[in-house]
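Backbone-to-sequence.
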């Protein structure tokens, strides 16, 4: 439990609850959270945070997260799960991890590789600049429907690409671009766990393009972190997110995303590949 200044106990943050792990034997034990539920299982960003935390909290871990790749192999059922994590190589400045999540022994549901690094002060050059955007409180908040529940864990204020989902597809495909301010709905200091979760907090690009919900899921998500723990400071927890896609073809698509601090620092970038089923025309 968390504690307030006067010593009173408070409930843990939803992300802390969703990523909580307990060591048992030679592996971590966790439990799915309905706070981060999607259509058929846990929201992919929360699962990525769980897998990253398994290495982050491991006593063998060195340095800060540099990159994490999560492959989503099968849906995770509601209930207890197990996570095995091991460092497979430690070099002078980097450490490489293999992480596996399963509920039944021998049946992998998600697998991740993660790289941690000891960052050293040195030359910096940012070729990409944060897009111009109004201040967060100058943009109206977006209200989601009650389900899926994970969307209610974030306050979102859309600048470009406000979701407009209906019952029938748009007459013509729309742009895949989205830009928004977002932060945890329940305040929480920004860290690598919130960043990896937010890197998946953009609705599926296929929804944006078609204007309808279709069967969809993330196959693989990679998030790159561009600073250490001391760099993750953001005014009131706000992050400017920008996401786009390049192609949808033969049932698979992509997404690239960038996350910026309010003062213009690039905090993280991500890329993912997704599957989808196109809507079936009436009468077919």
């Amino acid at each position: 439990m968390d504690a307030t200044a006067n010593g009173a106990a408070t409930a843990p943050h939803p992300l802390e609850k969703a990523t909580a792990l307990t060591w048992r034997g030679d592996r971590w034990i966790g439990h799915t959270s309905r706070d981060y539920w999607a259509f058929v299982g846990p929201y992919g960003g929360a699962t990525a945070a769980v897998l990253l935390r398994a290495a982050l909290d491991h006593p063998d871990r060195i340095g800060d997260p540099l990159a994490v790749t999560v492959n989503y192999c099968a849906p995770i059922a509601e209930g207890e799960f197990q996570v095995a994590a091991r460092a497979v190589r430690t070099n002078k400045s980097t450490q490489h991890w293999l992480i596996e999540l399963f509920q039944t022994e021998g049946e992998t549901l998600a697998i991740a590789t993660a790289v941690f690094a000891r960052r050293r002060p040195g030359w910096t050059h940012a070729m990409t600049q944060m897009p111009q955007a109004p201040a967060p409180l100058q943009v109206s908040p977006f209200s989601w429907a009650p389900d899926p529940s994970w969307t209610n864990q974030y306050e979102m204020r859309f600048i470009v690409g406000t979701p407009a989902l209906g019952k029938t597809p748009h007459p013509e495909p729309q742009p895949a671009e989205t830009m928004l301010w977002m932060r945890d709905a329940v305040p929480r200091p920004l860290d690598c766990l919130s960043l990896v979760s937010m890197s998946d907090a953009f609705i599926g690009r296929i929804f944006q393009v078609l204007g309808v919900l279709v069967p969809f899921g993330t196959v693989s998500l990679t998030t790159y972190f561009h600073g250490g723990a001391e760099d993750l400071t953001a005014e009131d927890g706000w992050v400017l997110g920008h996401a786009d896609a390049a192609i949808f073809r033969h049932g698979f698509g992509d997404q690239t995303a960038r996350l910026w601090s309010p003062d213009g620092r690039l905090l993280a970038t991500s890329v993912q590949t997704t599957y989808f089923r196109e809507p079936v025309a009436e009468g077919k």
